[in-house]
Structures are given as structure tokens and as C-alpha cells.
Model the fold of this input.
Amino acid sequence: MAQSSVPCPRPSRRRGQPSAQVDADLATRMCALPDCPRADLEAEWRRLYRCEAPRISRDLLLRGLAYRHQELRRGGLGKTTRRKLKTLAKMFQTTGRVGADPGLALKPGARLVREWHGRTHTVTVTEDGFEYAGATYSSLTKVAKKITGARWSGPRFFGLVSVGTRSRTEPNNA
Done:
């Protein structure tokens, strides 16, 4: 393996560093990556991902390493994003295609309000799913079933279905 004059970045194992120091260390590591020879980049990939480096361009390899360093220092993707990615992967496996928007883009903290049989129901979006009446549910459909006692599309029950998904029998009021 060729040695470079600029050592490839290694993550610090120190805990409790102030975030400004963490940011500075991370920036230094990111700046050093482009100067590393490919063999060192591949070794770094094996160390960080614990598998062989894929046969991709140097640029993509650098991006993957930079992402992994950031992920280890700052944390990975949130639960909502991981859930959306799993939905996209499942859609790709079944249909061979991925749509532009696989579902709702509700941010944690958003509140959904629906009146049903004279009673107002409020649902709060959380990182783990949806909170209603002190319980957490994995989907809006489960919340809708709890409220109505019947099978409902949760997004439709709460009025979140986009105009493009209107059924053919519904009139277009445009």
C-alpha cells in the first residue's frame, strides 16, 4: 500500500468533546480524504464499513467515506427517513420502479385533527410513528381503525390524500 504524505483520517475515540471541536476534527478529516491514494481509501472503506470497497469511481468512494465519517460522528439517518427508504426499497423490489413520493412527508411534532361523530381527535406525529390517546401507533391507518372501529385508509381519514390520487368516480371540482 502506498504511503501518502497526508495521513488518511482516523476517527477520534475521545468522548465528551465540545461540538465545535468535533466539527473542526471532522472538517480536517474531510479535507484530507482527497489527498489519499486509492489503496488507502479502499483500506479506510474496509475499516469503516467492514467489507470490501465497491468498484466505484474515486469520487463516489470519497463521498461514501465522508458520509460514513459524518454518520459515525453525528449520528445516522432518523427513523422517519429510514422507514421511507425501506418503503422505497420495497417498492423497487415489487415494481422495479420508484415513484417520486412514496408517501406522506409529515414532520415529527405535526398535529392532525379530525372530527368524528361529534368528537375531535388529535394525533401527533413522532419519530416512532403517531401518538393518539397516550398510545403510539406505527401507522395512521391503525389510528383511524382505533377511532372508527372500521378499516380506513389513515391518510384518507385525516384528509392527507393528494389531489393526484383521487379516484375516477369522485367529481373534479376544478
Observations:
- The beta strands are 111-116, 119-126, 129-132, 135-137.
- The two ends are 67 Å apart (CA to CA).
- The longest helix spans residues 58-74.
